[in-house]
Structures are given as C-alpha cells and as structure tokens.
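Researcher: Following up on the earlier apo prediction. This time include the ligand. It's LYWDKB7T, with the SMILES given after the sequence.
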Amino acid sequence: MLSASLGYPRIGANREWKKALEKYWAGGITESELHAELREIRLGNLKVQQSYGIDVIPVGDFTYYDHILDTAVMFGLVPQRFGWDGVNVDLPLYFAMARGNKGAAACEMTKWFNTNYHYIVPELKGLTPKLTRNRLVDAYREGNQELGIKGRPVLVGLYTFLKLSKGYTPEELPGWIDALLPLYGQVLRELAEEGAAWVQIDEPILSTTLEADDLVHIARIYAELGRLAPGIRILVQTYFEAVDHYAEVVKLPVDGIGLDFVHDGGGRNLQALEAHGFPADKVLGAGIIDGRGIWRVDLHERFDLLGRLRQVVSDERLIVQPSNSLLHVPVSAEREAALDPALRGALAFANEKLEELALLVRGAKHGIESITEECVASVWNREELGRIRGGAASGAAGVSALGPEQFARPSAFAERLAKQQQRWQLPLLPTTTIGSFPQTPEVRSARFKWRKGEWSAERYEQFIQAEIQSWIEIQTKLGLDVFVHGEFERTDMVEFFGEKLAGFAFTAGGWVQSYGSRCVKPPIIYGDVAFTAQMTVQETVYAQSLTGKPVKGMLTGPITILNWSFVRDDLSREEVAYQIALAIRKEVEALEAAGIGMIQVDEPAIREGLPLKRENWPVYLNWAVRAFRLATSTVQDVTQIHTHMCYSEFGEIMEAIHALDADVISIETSRSHGELISSFEERTYDKGIGLGVYDIHSPRVPTVDEMSGMIDRALRVLAPEQFWINPDCGLKTRKAEETIAALRNMIEATVQARAKYGAAAVKQ
Ligand SMILES: CN1c2c(nc(N)[nH]c2=O)NC[C@@H]1CNc1ccc(C(=O)N[C@@H](CCC(=O)N[C@@H](CCC(=O)N[C@@H](CCC(=O)O)C(=O)O)C(=O)O)C(=O)O)cc1
Ligand SMILES: N[C@@H](CCS)C(=O)O
Ligand SMILES: [Zn+2]
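Model: Understood. Below is the ligand-bound prediction.
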C-alpha cells in the first residue's frame, strides 16, 4: 500500500508565492528573480511532501497563475486578440491572458466546480492546437534532478479540459478530441521517455451528471491514449462527488482509477465498489482524507473505511490519498497556536493531512497497534472540540418554529417598487458600485498596525472614517446615484463577519488561493452561529451622514458566508445556513432602524454551492433561497433589498435568482463577454437588475465604447426602466486611479445611454 498526494498548495507557508507574483507585476523584481523565487517554493513543496513520508508525490501541479491556463498555453490555445507569434508563450503573454493588457481583455474566469477556486476559461474559437512546451517533462525532470524525487506528473484530462473550455459547438466536440489526442499522446510519450512511470490525469467531470455521449467519448479518449503512449501508466482521477457510472468508469482502459470516498453523496462510491468489486488489474487511488475540509479525522473510523476497501482491493493495488488536491486547504496548522487548544487540536490543514495519510498506511502495514497513540489522540481531539461547541441550538429546529411570513416580504414586488421609486426618485439607468473600493497598501497596513497594537482602536477608526469621507467625495464628483461606504474596515467580505459573529474562529495563517495571486482566509464555523453586536451600522451611518445620496448598507449573505467558510461537520449545511441567516437578519434590521434604506446582501457563492449532480439541485436551491429570504424579508416595503453575484454561470439558476425576491440584483457579466445576457431573452425577469458593464479583475481601464456596447447588448433583452449600471464586482483589488478612471468612463457611457434610451423609455 502506498500513500499519494494529488496536488499541494502553491502559495507557500507565508504566501511567498503571492508576494513574489505581485512584486513582479508591480515591477519590483525581474523575470529571472521571479523564476528563482517560484522555483524555491516549488521545490520546497516537493520536499515537504517527501518529509511526511508520502510515496507518490505530484509534479506539474505548481503554476504561475492557474493550472487550466497552463494547459491551454501548453497546447498553444492563445486567443487571437493577444497577437501571439505562434512560437513561444512568454510570461507577459501568459499573464495578459489571465489579467488582460492594454490591447486585449483578459480571458474569462470562473469557479472550479463547487469550490472558491477560479480558473481561466480556455477559448478555442478559431484556434488549432499545437504543443508549445511540455511543462510536465520540465516539472518531472526538475524534481528528479534536484531532489531525486521521481514524481507523478499531474495533467488535467482531455475531456474535462474540453468541457471547461468555450468557443466550440457540441458538433465540434469530436473534432476537438481528435485534435488534442495526438498532443496529449505526445506529452505522455515524452514523459515516459523522461522516465515517468505513472501520470495522474484529473477528470473531475466524471463526478458530474453525464450524458450518454460523454462516456463514449471518454472511453475512446483513454483507449486512444493507451495506444499512443503505451510506455506510461495512467491513473484517471475523479473527485468532489461519486461517479454515477461506476461500472463503466472502472472499466476504462487505464491502469488506475482514483475515487473520492469523502465527498461521494453519503458513501455512493463505497457502495458501488462493494457491490461491483474493482478490476484486479487496476490500482485504486482511494481518497479517504478530506481534501477540502479542515477537520482532523478520527483515525479509527478512517481505518475501518480503509479496512472495507482492503476487502475488495489488495494492498499492493491500493494507494491512500486525499480526496482531491490540497490546493483547497491552507498549508499548515502549525501557526495557529493562538486558537483555543481544543479547536487547534482538531484542525488538519495540508501538512497535517499528509501526516494522517502516512499514519493510516503505517497502521495498515504494521497493524493498528502501531498507531494506537495517534488513534487515541484523534478521538480525544474530536471530543474536545465537541466540548467547546456548547449546546447545539439547532438552526433547522429554530427555523421550523418560524412562520411563512418570516420568509416573504409583506408586499409583492410591484407594490414595493412603487414605494421605493417614490422614496428615491432615481434617474433612468441608475449608477452604483458593488461595495468595496481599493484596499490600498495604506489601508492594509493601517489595519496591520492596529492589530499589532501599534495603533489605538480610535486611530484606526479615524483612519477608516477618513477613507470613507474621501470616497464619498469621489463618488459625488463622479456623479454616481447610489453610493457605498467602501468596505475599508473589512479584510474580506466573509472573514470580517466571521470575526464578529459567535460560533466562528479565525486563523492566523489559514490562507487558500482563490484566483491568481488573490487569497482568502476562510473563517472556521465550529459552534452555533449567532449575532452578538452590530457589525456594519457605524460605518454605513457615518457614510450616509456625509451625503444626500442613498448609501447602500453592505452585508454578506448566509449562503456565501457558509460556502466561503470551513464548516463544522456535525450539523447539516442547511441548519448552519439558517443560523447565519438569523444572525444577518438582525444586522439588516439594525441598518434599517438606523435609517439606511437600501441594503445589499451579497450572495456571490450561491451558484458555487450547487451540488455537482443535477438531481441534488432542487433541495439545495430550496434551502439556499429560504436562507436568503429569512435574512432579508422582515424589512418594510420602502427598504430596497439588493443582492450581488459574480464569477459563476448563472443561466441555469435563473429561477432561484428570481425566487430570492431581491428588489435589485447586480450580476457579473462582462468577463464572460456578456454570455449571461441571453438568459434574459425570455423577458420574464421583472425586478431591478445591473449586469456588470466592466471587468474589475483586470488592471486595464475599459473604454466608454466597450461599456456602451455592454449596455446596448443588455438593453436588447431588459427594459431600461429596470436596468442599473454598475461594474462586475467590488473594486477592492484595483488601484484608486484605475477605479476612478473606469468609473468616469462608466458614467460617461451612462450619460450616452440615457440620451439614447430615455426617449424610448418615456414612450413606453
Ligand atoms: C469577491 N471574491 C471573493 C471570494 N471569496 C472571498 N472569501 N472573498 C471575496 O471577496 N471569491 C470570489 C471573488 C474573488 N476572490 C477574491 C479573493 C480574494 C481577494 C483579495 O483581495 N484577497 C486579498 C487578501 C485580503 C485580506 O484578507 N487581507 C488582510 C491581510 C492583509 C495582509 O496581507 N497583511 C500583511 C501585512 C500588511 C502590511 O501592510 O504590513 C500580512 O499579513 O502579511 C487585510 O486586509 O487585513 C489578497 O491580497 O489576496 C479578492 C477576490
Ligand atoms: N460587496 C463585495 C462583493 C464582492 S463579491 C465587494 O464589493 O467587494
Ligand atoms: Zn462580486
């Protein structure tokens, strides 16, 4: 029996990766310095995995931005607008695809399955693939030569890659498979020549709901790859859910299959394995340690699971591994000494997970007695955690006592709208932003000084007030219609609320990559969530005191707080969502009582939480919508509830979006080049809506014409009376100059649109 890792966090124990990239982008280090810094992190990652005694160590999972972008670039899939010479994809071009440059908009970015990791969407239209550089050979060679580690290269599977790409029709899919097969074959052959014995090919698409054709294509791909590259053994890796077609998947003509035994719909992979057996000529990669959660396992319980797997698969064909790449968890819990020891003891980040794997393999090889001490400790850890959780006031039980009126606004939308229009007298096509303004180094450093005790709370508060004041002035000068206070006091839109609500803990260094160099520090929900004190009223009321324009209160919704936190595993997610909803509702009510008449409750993660299997969608969407409504329904008709969503494909959940019953919604649209707009073609969406008119994740300032184009496209399917003009998302990642320049252009595009659509609106 061996242990394996499927991928390791790139960011470094202290986010060295992020810091190096950002220094390079800011011109602070040269390209060769960047290469040297990232090389050190990359090799360091391999060494750590080796030091935990992991037998099979992944190579090629490291990246300079995103592994899907790497795959596209490896196959020369560079969209024409970047003017590629067709020879070598250099670093500026690579980063331009991710972040945009002066001449070309960035590629789209979207959620990686149901995680908060975002990948760059490959664009295939009009392109012919070719192998540029075999980056897996480079990675394998480096590990081998520098550290003597004969790693297992990781590659995203051809079918998953194509399914996540855009720019081709369903009829063109077989042609794309044919075009990529020889290239995948060449990559694998070259790896074999370099000495790699195995390759891990990730096909998480196998864990989603598949159509009949999908399996036919997948079987053809792997039959063909086996023929093209007979010298290397292939492990097809699935994760994030059970595979629906177990018998077909394990029959694929490959040498190993990786299955997730943690996130498998309540044991479906295990049931299938026990019912159908496992082919005797294949290796099973058994994902038995949670690669997405952060709780230490009960080693006894995992050992029992391993025992059941060993009944079906012999030890020499069994590899014990995390359920998925450890990319989704922080690096090490070692830094978390400030936490309550009971909580600290129950945490397993990437390194602790590797330790758990090594222990399980040791137990299997030498008998469970060889890990008795660790088994006892693991049980004790979980008991201690239960002790500090306190008595569970179950959210669902609490919710069942709430009447239906708690989940619905007192009046229908049309009635509310009339009262809100009366109150606000907004112009046609009102302009607003999504909430955050630049979190400059000064803002972050002020917070850092306050946290370290160098600044008093009073000084920090004054600093935040000065930022708010300055941005109220900027919004006034720009001529926006609905203002925001700017969220300067927040580290992150989820972590901030986690720090203020009961039931949450937050870490010192629990960072996880979200997209590119941007990281998040998800708070940990370990106990019952409850409101303790007002969280946002002071800053919002202060901002409102400086202007006659409405200032939107700005909160994060229950589903987003849930999805972007690490969540306790002893209560259902639904119950935890209701607990959060009731806490957020208290803040909504406090804002309203303080005179704030527009309140935005952001739910950008609602789509991301959607189960991978379609049959599980209705149940999730039902409780997600109920949680949002529970948080927002007790306000008066004249109080306008806004919500916001970004970086997901929303077309499929329009009905649920409608059911949220928010008065106004803003949705990211421009980074996906306006694709969402077609979802409104049926013209059934009747509430206020702002489809983002520019991409905020790119440092590039969009032109007035580009934004006018977005407005025109949207107004082909939406009425001007319901349309709002706003950027795609919050502006915290942008510099002040970029933000002001882009908003100035947005206002200019609005002025032009009002002139163009105003007359038509009057006529209607
Ligand atoms: C809107 N999005 C969000 C997602 N998920 C979230 N949890 N939050 C989001 O806003 N998912 C979808 C999208 C896109 N994703 C992201 C994710 C992350 C960012 C982002 O800007 N991240 C920041 C980190 C923010 C933060 O918490 N900062 C802290 C700590 C700052 C820090 O590094 N301090 C230094 C010292 C500073 C000094 O001056 O000395 C240190 O600790 O070493 C803070 O503000 O206090 C990032 O930079 O990665 C955006 C979108
Ligand atoms: N209000 C948040 C939403 C981000 S999804 C912001 O503006 O940053
Ligand atoms: Zn957003």
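Model: Residues 22 and 596 are 37 Å apart (CA to CA).
Researcher: Noted. I'll compare it with the apo version next.
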